[in-house]
Amino acid sequence: MFGSRLAWLVPVTLTLLGLGTSIQTAKAENTNNYQFSVDYSTLVELDFNYRPDLEIVRATITGESTTDAPYGLDFFTSNTYGKLQPVEDPSIRRYNFNSDPSVFGLSEEPTLFDVYYGSGDNKLFGRANDRAEINLTEGTIRGGGTITIYDGTGIFKNATGTITFTQQDRLDPSGGPSRGLATLNFNLQTPQEVPEPAATTTLIGTGVVAAGLQIRKRKTEKLKV
Hints:
It comes from Anabaena azotica FACHB-119. Residues 1-28 form the signal peptide. The protein is of the alpha+beta class. The chain has 2 domains: 2-29 and 195-224; 31-191, Beta Barrel (AOC barrel-like). The chain is 24% helix and 47% strand. A hairpin with a 6-residue loop joins strand 3 (75-85) and strand 4.
């Protein structure tokens, strides 16, 4: 009795297991990945009058790609807070920058962010954590760090990932914005649209119904005997 029932249940069980495996595989492959690099001409503005009592500045950096950027990300604007770090050389100023004001004890200030954009629908939003060194003797600003991406629009809707960058600028002798060049390396992920599970659900439901009918049929045949 059990042998005949098991012989019938094995292929059904294997079929359902196969469907379950397919579902798990689909779930594991539902991410779009984007990796690319872009060079941007930059303009750096530092507001040293923001909080001189705490040696904290406000920084705004804008960029325009030197060539057409992938996915239309031809421009960016980055806003951060910067805290002066101790250094022995009086000709050097080192700053740590962050979009989060609480990092520097500014609990009542707004959290800032970066935006990467162009003329189309694609945008990226991120928050920066970086460093820079101002060399007054050489007249340069050198820096680098990481931008953590937390969202986007267009093909970058719900994007996550990071942008790492290096940057070098020339100090403006008149004290105006400094011009330079930054190289940004994008490593992004977005959730991939997956088909509605209606077809798979229907197949599994059909299999379960069929299993129930077969069991019922066998019980009926036994009673007749």
